[in-house]
Amino acid sequence: MARIITLLSDLGTRDGTVARIKAAITNRMPHAVVSDICHHVPRHNRRETAYLLADSCYSYPDGTIHLVFTGMFMDKENPPALLLATHRGHYFILPDNGIVSAIPPEFAPSDAQLIARFSSPYNSDTWLQEAINAIDAIETGKTGSYPVVVPYILPPLPAPQVTPVGIACRILRRDRYNNLVLDLRKEDFEKHTNGRPFRIRTFRSGMISTISRHYSDVPRDAPLCRFNKLGFLEIAVNHGAATELFGIDASDAGELDYHTIRISY
After folding, report:
1. What is the fold, at CATH topology level, of the domain defined by 161-264?
2. Model pTM score
3. Residues 6 or more apart from 49 whose CB is under 8 A from it?
4. What residues have CB less than 8 Å from 72, skipping those under 6 apart?
5. Which of 46, 110, 116, 214 has the highest count of CB atoms within 10 angstroms of its CB?
6. pLDDT below 70 — which residues of the chain?
7. Which of 135, 123, 71 is nearest to 98 (CA)?
8. DSSP assignment letter at 177
9. For residues 183 and 170, is the Cβ–Cβ distance under 8 A?
């Protein structure tokens, strides 16, 4: 069976960089199947990259190689090393800039190996060549020569603020439908609410007070909350935009940092 190689990056698709990456891979491995996860991660956003990896990578079969380019130019004077990590039969080739540490624990690789370190100046061709060499090592079973390393760990985000009357949550990400994913997972929601009724007040559409399973559980244009595939609480609108519920400018990704969503009980 042909090897599947996925690509995930913050490189965008307005120039030929991603095309050159694909060409370099297929020139070396003509029978590889190259699959795009996303190339529009906000610039250098390692946490969103980690989220997208957890959300998508295990939908591919065992043996898939996930090649990640996010943040490889975030510090040109001290470029991040290139790592190889494995989990559940999957391979991850990615920069040592904290992405591994931001993946939810049950989806994250537990160990990592050093493929290469880089010195400045360097460019995407240098990085890509080492990544392709690592793909060759996986194909030939020669990854044992890479030393084991401890990946860089991102500083943890503040946890949701829990009080006797509710939970104050941060917005973890906004998806392409302008649904809002909160930094609260199902097990923590259930622990803190402890079976009590809850409510989420919106600015424009009243209260949300039940957990839905599907967007269609509520009428068109009505708000809802649900736990997504990764177990995070998500606020959405059936055929609408959750950003509008809270007066968030969907065109400004940075504005998410200034909003807190409160769950009262």
Report:
1. Elongation Factor Tu (Ef-tu); domain 3 (2.40.30)
2. 0.90
3. 8, 10, 41, 68, 70, 71, 99, 102
4. 79, 80, 95, 97, 124, 127
5. 46
6. 250, 252-255, 257-258
7. 71
8. T
9. yes
